[in-house]
Design a protein that fits this description.
- With 568 residues, this protein is an alpha+beta fold.
- The chain is built from 18 helices and eleven strands.
- It has a nine-stranded mixed sheet with strand order 4-8-5-9-3-2-10-1-11, with helices on both faces. A two-stranded antiparallel sheet has the order 6-7.
- Strand 6 and strand 7 form a beta hairpin.
- The longest helix has 39 residues.
- The relative contact order is 0.14.
């Protein structure tokens, strides 16, 4: 689950970033390679020139990246993450990893550069001429059909009141549908943007909007490089919310109270007094069993709770008929009553001093409803603490504490018990204590993944916007010489970035929320629809749009250089 989520929020934006880097200055570079081909350079030499440049840049980048990682690892190992600490040596890459990075990155760059330079090497004249661009292929959009079909189907089943959770099919279908949807968002953004731009340009009467839409219609691929990383980042953020919600449901109780069981034999008198006074502990009780005698005797047993009425009320949903300082029969209407606890029967309880305390089952009963599971809903007797001799306790008893089920309170109580009695075994009733620690670690790793995804997405945006502005210098110069104002050109640049971003982020919010809901539905938890996460996604999308618009303004230079036209 962690690998899948990190793959969506880190590897998908990273793939977009690498594709953006592979297309840096692609138009001017291909034209330059075509010029080299036209002046007499052979096809193989043209490809070698491009590959050599790409390999040198990739190798330098791999070296700088590894050095930067080693420095960050040394620093972060000493700082650590919430719930996660490691030694610097644990994070240092192995020799195999270093070789793969140092050799694999240049090799991959050579393959990509060869594919990108094929057109210039084979048809240099067509490259040098400015021809009509091919419309974007629509095949990538078809990936959205099976992806949204699967996750939408699970959402429809849940809305109809059916529970499609469980089974091995959903464990394969949901991750596959999420990956198909994310890939469809990335590949389908260009044709969708081109179609919307064509419709807006044909109906618009604004010069600024018409210029922006016509440019986006002609070259939607450049817009794709600009915004896809941010779109996938928002899509991954939706999945991350769903993973955190599911982990939170698995690792904690749905009841409003949390119980903790500690064996009384593992605590000294002082430790017991300190533990029951911990911050967050609302009440305490003792869960005990009657003395079983010898194995040959086959003596009937009965369970009991040593507590006052107020202490018992802290463990229960409701309580009625309780009388202080009186032994009573404890009954829960939702729990099967022990038939051995018949009125008039006497059960011995072994005390810590070796003596036995006989408790006769009375006719008086106290009715209480407890949360399930609970340490106090199985016993049949309620014994007040005043019935025990002063200074003694029941042998083989368990100390049961109760607090609220808030994760912060649970973590605080567990830490407090560990500080007072570090060798005592503590069992939080109804939850797995390892899950709490794992949840902290997973949250830390997901936060790191989100930060990495954000950095990668922003880097891809900045690089692609800057590269796009450099590629369009000649066109901007021509528009400026024709009389277009600098303000008009800036608005055109902003609209060209904002339109595909709004379309992509809107699709990412819808698809991401459906993917998150399908994940929660098939997870079997109580929460199926994350309505509380939608405002956060909309706020993030609005912030991304505003930041992208502001970042696009400086990309159109105020001072126009006619030299860009003269060169062509």
């Amino acid at each position: 689950m962690l690998r899948f989520t990190l793959g969506c929020i880190v590897l998908l934006p990273l793939t977009i970033f690498l594709s953006v880097c592979a297309r840096l200055s692609s138009e001017s570079r291909v034209r330059r390679l075509a010029a080299l081909r036209l002046v007499g350079l052979s096809r193989k030499d043209t490809l070698r020139v491009n590959a050599g440049e790409s390999m040198a840049a990739a190798f330098l980048g791999a070296v700088l990246g590894l050095l930067g990682y080693l420095a960050v690892n040394e620093a972060m190992a000493r700082i650590g993450l919430p719930g996660l600490h490691w030694y610097p040596a644990d994070g240092r890459p192995e020799t195999t990893t270093l070789v793969v990075c140092l050799l694999g990155c240049p090799a991959l760059a050579a393959i990509v550069s060869r594919a990108g330079a094929q057109q210039a090497a084979l048809s240099p004249i067509n490259v040098r001429r400015t021809g009509e661009r091919k419309p974007p292929k629509k095949y990538g959009t078809l990936l959205l059909v099976p992806g949204l079909g699967v996750i939408g189907g699970y959402c429809v089943l849940s809305a109809m009141g059916r529970d499609p959770s469980g089974g091995s099919a959903s464990a394969v279908l949901v991750p596959g549908a999420v990956l198909l949807t994310g890939t469809g968002l990335a590949l389908g953004l260009a044709p969708i943007t081109a179609w919307i731009s064509q419709r807006l340009a044909s109906t618009s009467k604004s010069l600024t909007l018409t210029l922006a839409m016509r440019r986006t219609e002609v070259d939607p691929g450049s817009a794709l490089r600009v915004v896809t990383g941010l779109v996938l980042l928002l899509f991954g953020a939706s999945l991350t919310q769903g993973v955190l919600i599911e982990l939170d449901q698995v690792s904690r109780r749905t009841a409003p109270v949390q119980e903790y069981r500690v064996s009384l034999s593992e605590l000294s008198t002082k430790q017991r007094a300190q533990i029951i006074k911990l911050d967050g502990v609302n009440a305490h009780a003792l869960s005990v069993d009657s003395w079983e005698g010898n194995i040959e005797e086959d003596r009937p047993l009965v369970g009991a709770v040593v507590a006052t009425c107020s202490q018992l009320a802290a463990f229960s949903k409701s309580i009625s008929g309780c009388i202080e300082n009186k032994v009573m029969v404890l009954k829960d209407p939702n729990f099967l009553f022990d038939e051995d606890a018949r009125p008039g029967s006497t059960f011995p309880f072994l005390l810590g001093n070796g003596r036995k305390l006989g408790i006769t089952v009375p006719r008086a009963t106290v009715s209480a409803q407890f949360y399930d599971p609970s340490e106090v809903n199985g016993p049949s007797l309620l014994i007040p603490p005043s019935s025990l001799p002063r200074g003694t306790h029941v042998e083989n008893a368990n100390l049961v504490l109760v607090s609220s089920s808030d994760p912060t309170t649970v973590r605080s109580v567990l830490d407090g018990i560990g500080a007072i009695a570090p060798t005592a075994s503590v069992e939080p009733v109804g939850i797995v204590i390892d899950s709490l620690a794992q949840l902290t670690v997973i949250r830390s790793l997901l936060v790191v993944g989100m930060v990495l995804g954000l950095v990668i997405g922003v880097a891809a945006f900045v690089v692609s916007v800057a590269d796009r502005a450099m590629e369009r210098r000649g066109q901007v110069t021509a528009l400026a010489l024709l009389g277009s104002r600098a303000g008009t050109l800036r608005v055109v640049q902003v609209v060209q970035v904002v339109l595909p971003l709004v379309v992509g982020l809107g699709a990412a919010i819808v698809a991401g929320w459906l993917a998150e809901s399908s994940y929660l539905i098939t997870g079997g938890g109580a929460v199926h629809w994350d309505w509380e996460g939608l405002p956060l996604l909309f706020a993030c999308a609005l912030g991304v749009v505003v930041a992208a618009a502001l970042a696009s303004v400086p990309m159109v230079r105020r001072h126009i250089d006619p030299e860009h036209i003269r060169r062509d």
